[in-house]
Write a structure and sequence with these properties.
Oligomer: homodimer
Shape of chain A: globular
Number of strands of chain A: 16
Strand content of chain A: 15-25%
Distance between the termini of chain A: 55 Å
Strand order of the largest sheet of chain A: 1-2-3-4-5-6-7-8
Number of helices of chain A: 18
Largest interface: A-B, 130 and 133 residues
Helix content of chain A: 40-55%
Radius of gyration of chain A: 27 Å
Number of domains of chain A: 2
């Protein structure tokens, strides 16, 4: 099989999306997710233009990735500046990556109007920079910015800039449709011409301003390109970069290229959702391959057809990308996937049992309310146990009241929470304060329950996310709260959904505590068993 | 100029999207919007399979459109049934449209596995049906369902089905990529072959399952197709149909085809948003041409470039499709982008003035706190006015207290907010209840302030978003709240940031009200001036 190399630029070009702003921790999470997918290169930032990126490169050096190479991104040297004296290039080197992506100008008006340099000087800037990076032992991907527009305007000059990069030893010439305005037949023929001219790896970097990014990427590969740049969820300036999930699935499933291991591709849907979650962006439901509706069938003839022969209305099998078929207004959706999860803590479950039917019914109903158990499997386990009657009653919330007072626009008192819980036959009433009402609820819950269960003291919350589900309903919208917790050994995530953010948060917090108690109880019981049998 | 005919199927294929359900009134509104855009054909429903559609066709006959032809959609006759006796075909005729779109099977497995008919009988079904519709005086668009898949599997047979439609007098042979799995080079070459074979109009109907729908449509036109089917916002089964807005803009602005009048194209952005509004679906911000971010620039080099020469980072002029350029404010965008925004409400600002420096300093400091003014320009304007001393004092919040009580895990009382505001020298103290604390704050703020400013009654909140900024800080994390409001004429977005979600929401809500008062005050003053000078 022919290998096509993938470069994901979520952390660089994707960070230039409107509405996206990554913390260093977000970036680290995304890098790990992409590394698990085994993309070949992760373009992690522009150390010259953004000092925060430098911090991230340092973090990556101390926490190395398993599979992906890290690439640092930067421009060719400034005009009238020697490479050794160029501050950006020095930053690029000190990022300490094995690979650098250097972008240079291919379009004459960009040289004259933006750089305000002579055409010849730009060629020298490319030549010097690539050579300098090679001398410093870097693998160099040369990004020919606006190559297709440049070629359209002045083909000779565009090729001259590529030639400079090639002659100075660039390992890959990546042709960029930076403004996203080119069409696939043109991209295909120009890519072919470049490949015939330069015996080196050629790549494609497409943007979606004309809705052509995926097509341009795929047809460039048809023409012989072996390196594709994009962003996994399609983030990027304006309409976004080529959606790498779409391109990857197309190349590997439909054209027979080799990009990532098949088992990684089979996790594509959840991988895309994980990156989107960290970015606090929802995955468009109609996104090819990975969207919630990508294999949803609604029209009667389609439903009928897909039941008779799935090939008739599905271009690939949903399982090949970890997605699943949804047949709307019917009973078959995801049954086996749900029962697979149940088996983890209740191996006796039978596929056609009444219990199984009840569970499926519950999941459907709760999903309809706005729950999402994907990534919140601890809450899922608690709900199934409740349904099956195997959820121990550790405590019962009898009252929780919060007051929150602002004395002016900027002066704020602490929030107070008063709580009453029942444990066995003992009531505990107490109160706590916090920075904001959710923090106060968190404190009050722990304070009340630690009296009975000291192990709650080990729980530390590591993540708190809020998603407004029907944001058109404004302040009366339903919200979903996801909370991640750890006790130093294990991490678990719980979910709560309500119109009231206090109530949604309380649910997720209580689930987190209950899951901890369930775990330590099980450990205690199995310890006891072991002691007995010893 | 060469004419390419557009058929919009929002009301037929689009209605098969998950999450879409049109009332007859919705359909009428959408038909009028498409008619104003002057698309050539509106495929308005399937009268045979959906009795509600029949009602709509009747409504259209009594309320005729100005520009677009209405098409009714239906299948070829049933097997073993004479055309005259086929109930679906009779419904199709009684829809009373000048044009019908008849779909037939091109892919052999569909004939054998789905229709369970012989290959020869299917050809006869196509032949009879098209002939019957022609005899009844209809313009016939023949939709060759799954044509590309059929051609791939059995080219001879696929062409035989087309030939039957052609020989029976079909006015247009529309080649469908029903499963959306074909690539543009294949679509282009097969379309070319069909055009060479049959001297009749050839069309394309593409789906987006491989992210190729727009590319397949455009390349089919390059090959000579003169009829394109799609849905204006890209609605449709699974990943959707070809986005007709994208295809239209590509054909007309970039390839020089003639589809709709230029002045209609210049309204494309609002037209797409109107159809989406009626459908209760939000337009994806990164949709080509018409999305809110389609011409948004954030990266520093992009902002700098587009200021020097817009061509450098925009493939077409935003005004050609009724969209506009947005220069985002952020640490990466820099000084000139920020001052560009200030100029809109304070044209006297000088780039190197002390005021400018103060503003930049403020933006940086607030972004550091977690504010993000990109997309929240109303809050930006209020903050700048505060800094410059040109923010009128409409009201002052003196106290806002919220109580929220849960009586068990599932029982919840309403939330209550008590508020004290000062307007001029008058104090107003009141209270309100809501579904959750933020909803209660919203209600209390309005109730207290409407006493003084009745125009607040016009404000409706249309969007509410919450982003946890440092989610590792868990329940003590800082949150950013974005609120979008409208008064029926204009939309504006405001932002609040605080550790306490109540406080962040209060800020954004107060900004929203203040911005409305600022606007209505300015209008009142300018009305007064006009009256004075008249």
């Amino acid at each position: 099989m022919n290998k096509v190399f993938l470069l994901d630029s979520t952390l660089r070009d994707g960070a230039q999306s409107v509405g996206i702003s990554f913390s260093v921790q977000d970036k680290l999470k995304i890098a790990r997710i992409l590394d698990d997918l085994q993309v070949d290169y992760i373009e992690a930032g522009n150390p010259g233009s953004n000092p925060k990126d430098m911090e991230f490169f340092e973090l990556l050096r101390t926490n190395p990735l398993q599979h992906s190479k890290v690439a640092a991104f930067g421009a060719t040297r400034k005009k009238n500046t020697a490479v050794e004296d160029d501050a950006n290039l020095r930053s690029l080197l000190s990022a300490g990556t094995d690979c650098v992506a250097i972008f240079g100008k291919s379009w004459d008006i960009h040289v004259t109007d933006i750089l305000r340099a002579s055409l010849e000087e730009n060629v020298e800037m490319i030549r010097d920079t690539v050579r300098f990076m090679k001398e410093n032992g870097k693998e160099v991907i040369y990004d020919a910015e606006h190559f297709f527009d440049g070629y359209r305007a002045n083909p000779e000059y565009a090729l001259k800039t590529l030639e400079a990069a090639y002659e100075s030893g660039a390992d890959c010439l990546c042709l960029c449709d930076t403004n996203g305005g080119s069409f696939p037949d043109f991209v295909q023929s120009v890519t072919k011409l470049v490949i015939e001219r330069y015996p080196v790896a050629v790549g494609i970097h497409a943007h979606d301003d004309a809705g052509m990014a995926a097509a341009n990427s795929v047809l460039a590969v048809s023409a012989g390109a072996t390196h594709v740049q994009g962003t996994l969820v399609g983030f990027g300036e304006r309409c976004g970069n080529a959606n790498l999930a779409t391109v990857l699935a197309n190349l590997q499933l439909k054209m027979g290229y080799d990009c990532v291991p098949a088992e990684a591709l089979e996790r594509l849907t959840s991988t895309v959702h994980e990156v989107a979650d960290v970015s606090n962006i929802s995955v468009s439901k109609n996104m090819p391959y990975v969207g919630a509706n990508a294999f949803a069938h609604k029209g009667g003839m389609h439903v009928d057809g897909v039941m008779k022969n799935s090939l008739t209305f599905e271009h690939v099998a949903p399982s090949a990308v970890g997605n699943s078929r949804r047949v709307m207004m019917s009973e078959v959706a995801g049954r086996s996937a749900i029962l697979e999860k149940v088996k983890k803590f209740y191996p006796e479950i039978k596929k056609d049992s009444e219990e199984a039917t009840k569970i499926i019914e519950m999941v459907k109903q709760m999903e309809h309310q706005g729950y999402q158990f994907e990534g919140a499997e601890s809450s899922f386990e608690l709900e199934v146990r409740r349904l099956l009657g195997t959820r121990p009653k550790f405590f019962e919330l009898q009252m929780l009241s919060v007051t929150d007072e602002q004395q002016s626009e900027s002066r704020k008192k602490p929030s107070y929470a008063t709580i009453k819980v029942l444990v066995g036959d003992q009531l505990e009433i107490t109160a706590a304060e916090g920075m904001g009402p959710v923090n106060a609820i968190d404190a009050a819950l722990r304070k009340a329950l630690e009296v009975f269960y000291p192990e709650i003291g080990e729980i530390r919350l590591t993540d708190y996310k809020v998603r407004v589900l029907d944001s058109e309903s404004a302040t009366a919208a339903t919200v979903r709260v996801l909370i991640e917790s750890t006790d130093g050994h294990e991490y678990w995530t719980t979910v709560g959904v309500a119109v009231d953010i206090m109530q949604a948060s309380t649910r997720a917090l209580m689930d987190s505590i209950e899951y901890k108690l369930l775990k330590s109880n099980a450990t205690a019981q199995s310890d006891m068993k072991q002691t007995e049998s010893a």
